[in-house]
Amino acid sequence: MASVILTLNAGSSSLKFAAYRCVREGEPDLLASGQIEGIGATAKGAVKTVSGETAELSFDGSLARVDHAAAMGAILDWLRQAGYDSSVAAVGHRIVHGGPDHSTPVLIDDRTLASLRALIPLAPLHQPHNVAGVEAAMKAFPSIPQVACFDTAFHRSHPFIHDTYALPRSYYDEGVRRYGFHGLSYEFITRKLGRIAPEIAREGVIIAHLGNGASMCAVHDGRAVATTMGFTALDGLAMGTRCGQLDPGVALYLLTEKKMSADALSDLLWKGSGLKGMSGLSQDMRELEASDKPAARDAIAYFISRIRRELGGLAAALNGAEAIVFTAGIGEHSWKVREAALKDMEWMGVHFDAQANRANAQIISAEDSPTTVFVIPTNEELMIAEHTVATAGVEKPR
To answer: Is 163 a catalytic residue?
Structure first.
């Protein structure tokens, strides 16, 4: 059997994974994908093959709680049952934060792992779990290359003015800067657009990654110019549970006048704000769109207003945009959000095709639109698999 690449995306309570087969030319072929939920408690997981077959994952019944190592064990058991375990040639990991130094995927060794741990203060809600996933995979596959693929790497091409804050330069030199996130998604979309519309891809493009985590990015000729997220994944657009752009004075007020603890403030900004906090109902855009509650409508309206503001700002950073791309869960599936975000955007060269938009067509702008608007599904796992093949030097079948 050809070499198999395993990709892992470890979160605090979940572990997404996929298995790909290396092919002689082109993209790796997806074999199966799955997810384990409930890590840290009573976990459950399932895997689905590309042919549509599904299987439940089993866990050691003697465990009081399932950690990342136990979750990795369940994936390894499935690989054995599927006959893939002896063919795994490399494991690729989504790592949220690469700091200022990691601009490309890297092989993971003890030194790299130490550097990932050192970045935990910059991404305390994501990085520890990414590291736990790496450690579990290294234990399960001790002799197989492990590759770190960073969500921040794509943004390392930002010019200084879009990478810094108006703080003393010493803070920038210490690493307090705009890192940006969702880089694997932006890289995938940029490559995909290069195949769909190569001439457009060489110009200015604004990509809107709209999901439970949401951000936007300005790209020129395949390189990131500016993005809405910053030092952390809190900045920019409102998200499912995250606040997005916030006056720092609000945080100071809550700390000093309301005597809120740092932990409580963190919990509010990361988990209790955004669409969920504003609506008091849900972080799920589908539920909000189906609701007739005024607070749900207000939350959606705010979400859309921030998209429109960032469209203008990113267009200015590019000196004009040739294209706009919507991707991720909301961007790919909510025609209402796309329609509202692009309403009356003729000043930006957008001539909208409402019928194509409601049909979720790949191009939702009119034929005469100076700015082309695309809807392109993202695939971060495939991007990780491609990077892993290249970085680990996996031999392709002849």
So the answer is: no
